[in-house]
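Hey forum,

I'm writing up a methods section and want to include a predicted complex as supplementary material. The small molecule is flavin-adenine dinucleotide. I've pasted the protein sequence and the SMILES. Can someone with a working setup run it? I'll credit the forum in the acknowledgements.
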Amino acid sequence: MEAGAMKGRRVHVIGAGLAGLAAAVRLARAGAHVRLYEAAQAAGGRCRSYDDAELGCRVDNGNHLLVSGNVAAMAYVTEIEAAATFDVGDSAAFPFLDLRTGERWTVSPTDHLFPWWLFLKHRRVAGSHAWDYLQALKLRNAGPRQTVAEVLPRESILYDRLWRPLTVAALNTAPEEASAHLLWTLFAETFGKGGAGLHALLPRQGLSESLVDPALRVLAARGAEISFGHRLRAISLVGDAVAALDFAAKGQVDIAADEAVVLAVTAPVATDLLPDLVAPTEFRAIVNAHFRIEPARVSTGGAHPPFQGIVGGTAEWLFVKPGHVSVTVSAAEPIIDRPAEDLATTIWRDVAKALDLPHVPMPAWRVLKEKRATFAATPEQLQRRPGPVTSHHNLFLAGDWTATGWPSTIEGAIRSGFAAAEAVRR
Ligand SMILES: Cc1cc2nc3c(=O)[nH]c(=O)nc-3n(C[C@H](O)[C@H](O)[C@H](O)COP(=O)(O)OP(=O)(O)OC[C@H]3O[C@@H](n4cnc5c(N)ncnc54)[C@H](O)[C@@H]3O)c2cc1C
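Reply by user p_vandermeer:
Happy to help. Structure tokens for the complex are below, copy them as they are.
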């Protein structure tokens, strides 16, 4: 959006997750007068960092992996001037460990568009052949109602060691119910661009320092007003327009005819506020476990990669971070109701094997359960994603659950924010 395109126009953005921040930054940079309201006392929503008193270190609410091919996320990082806050891999490299056999391998696509790397054994999944990867093309022709498990051969080694882990990690939905079509979109926009689009970007400090705080600084510099502790309770609609926003104890904000509202809250909150809205109704869980570990015990410079995928255990992705190790288990419905200590013990066993550490004693730990981490990426739920434009002429929608064509991810949230900003401009 060109600078000045929105000069002086007032836009109210509700929700300071990445969708709301991306919309607010785009609009503010185009000259709009942005007012951003957030229910919590901090921005970031489902993508944020905080100081954990028990662990004695700063942790991210969940592990988030960005890659260089995430075009909207890269544009956002540039717009909020945060590129220097990331460590960027020199090449694409996804290390894996199979806990059942002890085998380790690194999927390492070269930067070329044509996947020559598939012909090099040491760059592939252990035990796979170059032609096995042609299976992915079956996703391209999948029908809109087909699941990943219906399309990809379940008996193949790649299903267990690549297709399943990627589906679960990227769609937060088990392959037996995840949309094959959505997985294809993701492959086409990442692997399809060659390894150059798969270099990992890891926040040097934390998610907030890389994706949230810089955005708030850009907004403040552009005169945006940011109000925390403002939970939108009701939207008053008159005819086809929003006439006022009701922030309960914080008061009511009247919306003038030439002002716009971007609703960038979660799907359940949006449907509470707008009962006629059709939006996703099913969600999937993520469990994160953090373990306090002195940096000297695990160095990312040598034996331990900064992150690795794990198959054949409970832990799925393991990240080595400053002062702690952090583990993600996605599509976590089968384990979410287990007691936290039991989960920590099971996950720690996997971590100890992966990092060659003693099983006992287990270090200080924290287990975070997020029951509604993302919407369920099933064919049925994808039909329920609305676009940014509503039947009310000054009301626009953003959020990872809107129709971005992407799963519920940082990239999807930022795309939705940009799309809402563009819709406001139009
Ligand atoms: C544990 C976990 C791990 C994840 N891992 C990954 C990953 O590895 N890679 C990846 O790309 N994505 C990952 N995600 C998904 C990613 O975090 C989300 O897709 C993204 O952050 C969603 O952003 P959003 O702005 O759409 O929604 P949210 O972040 O939910 O933002 C909505 C905001 O609206 C505010 N709000 C709600 N109601 C109101 C109200 N009534 N009034 C005012 N404000 C309100 C909320 O407080 C919140 O700040 C993960 C998510 C979780 C929970």
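Some notes you might quote in the supplement: The chain has a mean pLDDT of 93. DSSP finds ten helices and 20 strands in the chain.
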